[in-house]
């Protein structure tokens, strides 16, 4: 038996109203920090590659549940993904599951998990998987086989609000760039895709680490 998720647009009007008011109140509470067009709990430090945010539509009781990436972040993610795909084509997954790595302490009776060290593989020239991937992201990036486009797409299957995925051709996501995007999007509230592809080289990306955003702790009183 499967549980089908009811999308936001098919939920009762009272739920629409309650969710809309909740988002509107959060935007108001965070106005002095974020400018009054959106709310997010991701800490905007000036060099974000992605954020999750919420903002109101111009249509009654509608709001957008939005994921925004920069084109550089999307390019980087695509290169990492391809590098890992190629690594698994060379060497399929061989790591033990978490439960296979568990041992029971005879005194306490509690289970202990001891992750095994990364293995080196002949197919990777004696490197571990992560070492091989780190070497190959430069090769993949500089071959210019990964292209990204500035796009905005709508997703009506979200449980909370209307889903919106945006990839923007800006260096970083800041309060100003996010606000400018929202103002532009609200003129039409439609999807778009810029057909001209964007291609980067390895050295054009400032950093290649995996980006994880901090949670902002707003003090509104």
Description:
With 221 residues, this protein is of the alpha+beta class. 30% of the residues lie in helices and 18% in strands. The protein has 5 helices and 9 strands. Strands 1-2-8-7-9 form a 5-stranded mixed β-sheet. Helix 3 (71-90) packs across helix 4 (129-142). The longest helix is centred in the middle third of the chain and has 20 residues, at 71-90.
Model regions low in confidence, pLDDT < 50 over at least 5 residues:
none
Beta-strand proportion: 15-25%
The span between the termini is 47 Å
Tally of DSSP helical segments: 5
Which key phrases capture this entry?
two-stranded antiparallel sheet, 9 strands, globular, 221 residues, single chain, 5-stranded mixed beta sheet, 5 helices, alpha+beta
Question: What is the gist of this entry?
Answer:
The chain is of the alpha+beta class and 221 residues long. It is built from 5 helices and 9 strands, in the order H-H-E-E-H-E-E-E-E-H-E-E-H-E. Strands 1-2-8-7-9 form a 5-stranded mixed β-sheet. The protein has a two-stranded antiparallel sheet with strand order 3-4. The chain has a two-stranded antiparallel sheet with strand order 5-6.
């Amino acid at each position: 038996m499967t549980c089908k998720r009811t999308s936001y647009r098919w939920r009762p009007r009272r739920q629409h109203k309650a969710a809309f008011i909740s988002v509107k109140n959060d935007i108001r509470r965070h106005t002095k920090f974020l400018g009054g067009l959106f709310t997010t709990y991701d800490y905007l430090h000036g060099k974000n590659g992605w954020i999750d945010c919420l903002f109101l539509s111009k249509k009654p009781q509608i709001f957008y549940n939005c994921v925004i990436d920069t084109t550089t972040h999307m390019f980087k993610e695509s290169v990492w993904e391809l590098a890992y795909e190629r690594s698994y084509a060379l060497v399929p997954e061989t790591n033990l599951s978490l439960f296979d790595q568990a041992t029971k302490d005879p005194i306490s009776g509690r289970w202990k998990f001891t992750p095994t060290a990364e293995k080196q593989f002949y197919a990777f020239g004696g490197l571990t998987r992560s070492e091989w991937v780190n070497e190959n992201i430069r090769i993949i990036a500089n071959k210019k086989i990964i292209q990204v486009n500035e796009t905005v797409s709508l997703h009506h299957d979200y449980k909370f609000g209307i889903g919106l995925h945006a990839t923007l051709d800006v260096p970083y996501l800041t309060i100003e760039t996010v606000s400018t995007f929202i103002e532009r999007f609200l003129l039409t509230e439609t999807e778009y895709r810029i057909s001209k592809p964007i291609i980067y080289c390895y050295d054009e990306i400032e950093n290649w680490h995996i980006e994880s955003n901090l949670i902002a702790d707003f003090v509104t009183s």
